[in-house]
Amino acid sequence: NKLNKQRQTGGQTSPEEDQGYARRDNTTLIAYLRYENPKVRTSAAKILGQRQCLQAVMPLCQADAGRSAI
Description:
The protein is mostly helical and 70 residues long. The protein has helices spanning 2-10, 15-22, 26-32, 38-50, 57-65. The chain is 66% helix and 0% strand. The relative contact order is 0.18.
């Protein structure tokens, strides 16, 4: 499927993919921001944003500074 291929290459994730990470604690999700896999970083960033996790603001900024897809 073309849409799934685009998601894989661009780091985009679906709500279904994010659900697997939603059970993780904030500290683990912050660590995921440094993963090589853009889909892991994207899911972690989305969940941390939904939780309005203030401790994730600086790690998110740092992760975004060095990568094109979070």
